[in-house]
Structure formats: structure tokens, C-alpha cells
Amino acid sequence: MSGSLPQTKDLVNGAFTLVKEYTKLTADLAEEDYDYHMAFPAFRHQITRHSEAVVSLMDKFCQLLPAKRRVTLSSTGGKLTDPQRAAVMEAADSLLENVDGLLDELKGRRLSAKDQLSVKFGSELQGVVPSSSYSVFNAAGVSVLRPQLTFEHPVDNSPTPFRPVYYDEKGVRHVGEPGVHPFAERIKAVSVPSEQLLLKTETPYLSLVTCPLTFVDTVEDLEAVVAVLLNETEIAVDLEHHDFYSYQGFTCLMQISTRTQDFIVDCLKVRANMYLMAPVFLQPNIVKVFHGAREDVRWLQKDFGLYIVNLFDTSIALQNLHMPHSLAFAVDHFCQVKLNKKYQTADWRVRPIPAEMVSYAQQDTHFLLYVYDRLKQLLLNCEARASVGNMLLHVFQESRLLSLERYEKPHLDPDVTYKQALGRSLGGLSSSQLQVAREIFNWRDMAAREADDSPSAVMHISCVLSIATKLPTSANEVLKCCSPVSVAVRTNVMKLLQIVKDAIGSADSLKDGANGDVKPKPLPNVGVALRYMGVHRSMTGTLPSIEQRADTAFTVEDTHVVVRTEPSAWFETMRNVAAILRRKPYYPIALPGHDVVTRMSAVKRAREVEEMKVKGEGEGEEEEKRVHVDAEEPTVERENSSERGEGMAGPCLQEGLEVKDEVEEIDVPTQKPLELKEGAISLRQQYGTGSANRKKARLGKKNKS
Q1: DSSP three-state, residue 289
Q2: For the chain, which domains are there?
Q3: Residue 254 pLDDT class (50, 70, 90 cuts)
Q4: Could you tell me which residues belong to the region Disordered (predicted)?
Q5: Alpha-helical regions (H) of 551-659
Q6: Per the confidence metrics, is the pTM higher than 0.70?
Q7: What pLDDT, on a 0 to 100 scale, did the predictor assign at position 74?
């Protein structure tokens, strides 16, 4: 067979190359002008020939289906109906699944349900890809059968409320009432043992190499573990859960650590006997140390009917100490060990479990008891608020509230849940698109319940929004909106297409009805709002809606005269503040250069006074000037000039200046800046503006110095 493998590989590569090239050519066909090109005989002949060849090939695929689902396509004339397209897709999926199964069987990966659960932890199958090739979510291609098919009690994904099934210390099975915590009273009544509130020296943790690790996959081993744990006072617990290919999810592993050894319980194999752990979890003298126990508490209730008494959550302790509350930080901070969180979202259904995943599961609880000791010391030495009191006792009380959490099934409100899930992505969608989003989202949840898959495994939330936005009109367009395409989507593609059409039709009918003869309901409290008398109401700026004109429903007899209202305290305060500000005197503040402006204004006013005086004397001598204008014009000009010179000695009425009997002549230059020996003068006044003048100012200042 080894000699035929290269030939088979070459054949597959050649076929794949041809299919890829053929698909690329079909994408280049003109979609908008297709009918126009079909009018040409040569183009129409080639399209018909290729269509018949493809339909013939698809007909051969369909003949491989069971007789009940087999469809004949040879007589379709190169065109397919929607049911025929769905049959072709189903045939292709069936062939691909057969190929995957044969490849797994050839490489030794395919196991029966019984054999898959019987493989020991950490062991490797012959022919399996090495453990280093495993990715975080089973990307190595290991075939995993659905463990929930082997559960003793079938999974109930119905929308009915969750009814708890629990066990007491004696292992007696009870069925509780929905919404009731069966051990709530016991958890509230139990007090923390005094020895757990005392300050003790931390116990060093053992090395991972020397610490014994026990795998528990039989009922006998589980009973032995229970006997060991009942003699302990502190245990660390963690769970590994899977919820992608399960609607409600299920617990795959339980890790338990004591001071001297570690245990890993295969919950898939001993699921029906996990109730034997009830005495351990209900024992109040044993503190159960978890990290981030909110989901763990609910998973224990859902899968095994186990409830926790005396819980300590290290995540709550870290938060109360105002420290980062991740497990990786706690282990790194207190133990100086870096945890590898690569397998945090791994597929824990895989059997056998790779060695790396086993090591990851062990480390989640191996260091937790030492972290618990160090946190107790910090909490006891921490000074808390008076309302909190003892910080360690406060963390125990918050952990107790966490253990009172109850598991509830996922709830779907057809009219609300899709809005919460899609959120702002619904903004801008029309009424038809909103209706499609609602119907597709609700179908997604229903299909997930039926297939026992998570809604994300059936259809990603982005695909719901894509279908609602694009409103596909064919099965092929629906599949293009969904990436990746799940088996549920491919099988129900025609149903999805019909949902889209029905949703659009119902939205259009509602829209037509709203625009028809249906009388709209009056808006509430428009025009008839209550009016409170004698109470001051501040204006908010919000006006009533004017979408519809409301008819007043009250009469004149129902009205009342508005009495004088009392101003509010805020209004009175603001009025008093305004009165105080009005009475406050105003003190002007002199700006820089005020003295320069004052001196220049005084000179200007003195000049104007002298000019007015000269003008008055000149009017009396006007007639004499007319007779002797030619002879005495030079003399008059000299007299006027002398009088203007004497006018500079006039009084200068300006605040801050002394008025003298004799004032020296002041020369006011026209181009040069005013030189004053007293008072400040700005650089801009002296040198002007601009970069060149600023350089002159700097040089002038340097020369003066």
C-alpha cells in the first residue's frame, strides 16, 4: 500500500488543482450581464455543456446517499431546485465525513466510545500525532465522540426550570424543587472552625516531580480517594469543563490536592458515581480552597449534585487585598512559578489526554494550598475598615455567599435575548432586518438545544448579523453568510432561507397594516399632563412629543386657577448673590504702559486747547486780514506760529501731573518713539513689530548693557 500512496497523493493534488481553477473561472462570470451574454449562441452553448457536466457529476454523488434520501438530477436540464441543492450538499458532507473516518482509522485515531474512555491518562495511541502538535482546542484532528451519549441520565435541554438532584452524606439521592438551594440553611448555620482563623506558619509545597499523582478512573479508586480526603482539614479543588459541543456543558476532570499528593478524577468515566464525593464537600471541618469558584459551584450542582460547605475562594481574598486576582499572578507572586495557560480553553474530552494537558491540570491545584496559607497571613495582618472587621473572616463570609449560588438553565426570551446578544449591532437595521435577526437567533438557540451543541457551535453570532443585514434570497447566499458552516446550518439551509422569507413577509405586512386604516393609539399624557399647584418646578428643556396632535380631554370646569408659586431655595440664593455683586465697588486696575498713554493724552489735549484759543483770536481780526492780506500775510503767519509755541505752555489738566506756571516747550517727534525718562515703555513702541525689529531690540539691549 505504501507504493500506491504517492500515486494517490498526486491524483488528489491534480484533482484539487483542477477544481480550484474551475471555481476561479466560475467566479469571473458576468452576473449582471448574464442574460445579455446568453443571447449569443456560442456563449449559451458553452454554459449549457458545462452545466450538464456538473449536474451529471452531482447526480453521481447523490446516488451514494441512502435510498430514502436519494435524488435523481440527470433530467433537470442543467438547473437545480432548492431541495436538489440541499441533497447535493448533504451528499458532499457525507462523503467528507467518510473520508475523515477512514483517515482516522488508518492512523489509529478512531476509537469506539468504550475504548475511548478506557485509555489511561497521559498515554499515547500508536500512530497519533505527538503531543507537541496539540493546540489549545483539539486542532490536531483527533476524533472525539460525544461523551454525553454515554451518560446514564440523558441531558435535559428543555426550557423548563432546572430541578436539582442532590445526594446527602449517606449517598441517598434526592430531587429538589426548582429555584431552591437544598443546603442553604446548613451553609448559613455552619460557622468557620476556630483553628482555621488562627495565624499559622505556611506549609511548603512539594515539587511537582516528587509529589505523587494519582489518576482516578474507577469506582474503587474513587472510594479510596474519598477515604483519604475525609482525614484532611484543607483540600484544593478545581474543575475542567467543556461547553462548546454541549448546550449546558459538562465537567470532564476534577483536580484535588492535599499537602502531600495530587489526584485527577476522570469525571467522564465515573460520572454516575461522583455522588460518593458528597461527604467530603459537605464536611464543615474541611475547608475547600477554590480559585474563582463561581462557575465551579454551579457545575458541581448541575453535573454531580454536589454542594459545598466551608468554601474559601482565593480570588476573593486577592480582591480584598487589592491585588491582581488571577491564579497565574498568585502562583507567580507567592511561589515564583510561571503557569502556562495555553490549555485553559482546550478540549478536555480528548482521550488519551496529552502529557502537557495533564501537567496543566495538576498545576491548577498543586500550589493552591500554599497560596491559601500566605493569603491567610496577609488577611490576618491587614487592618480593615470598622465595618469589615476581621479580613479573614470577611473573606470566609463572602465565599459562603458564593457557595449559595444556584445553577439555572440558559433562558431565552424570544423578544429580548437577541437584542441583548447583538446589542449595538442592531443599530441602523430596518424593521425587516430586525425581524430576520430575531427569527434566526431564536432558531439558532432551538437547533443548539436539539443537537446538544452550544449556540456558537451551531452558528456564530456574527453570522446571525450577516444574514439579517444581507437578507439572502438563495441557499448559496445563506451559506456565504455563515463561516464556518456547521452541520446544523448545512442540513437546515432551506429552512433558514424560508425563515428569512417569512420574516421579511411578516415585517412588510406589519408595516402595511401600520400605514393602512388602522387608527393609531393616542400618545399617553400628551396635552393632559397633571399640573401640580403651589410647587415650583424647574424647567428641564424637555418638550412633549408633537408626533400626533392630541385632543384635550378636559373641560373648563375641570381647570383650576394657578396660585402664586413660591420660589425655590436655589432661586432665592442666586438672587441674593446677584444683589451682593451689584453692590460691590468696582476698582479699575491699571494695565502695563498706562503712564505712557496718560502723558501722551495730556500733550494731545494741551495742543487742542491752544488751537482753540488761537482760533478764537483769529476770528476778531478777520476783517483786517482781508484788507491787508497781501501785505501782512507773512507777519500773521509768524504771529500764529509764535502763538502756537506759547500754547504749549498752557495748563495740562491730567491726573498725576503737576501744573506749572511756566512749562518748557515739549518736542513731539513724528517718526521717532516718544522718549520718556520716567515710566515704562514697551519694546514694540520703541522698535516696532516683526522679526527684524525684534533682532534690533536684542542688539539694542545688548549694547546698553
Answers
A1: strand
A2: 19-110 (no CATH), 159-403 (3.30.420.10), 417-511 (1.10.150.80), 673-705 (no CATH)
A3: very high
A4: 611-652, 685-705
A5: 569-583, 594-620, 622-627, 629-647
A6: no
A7: 63
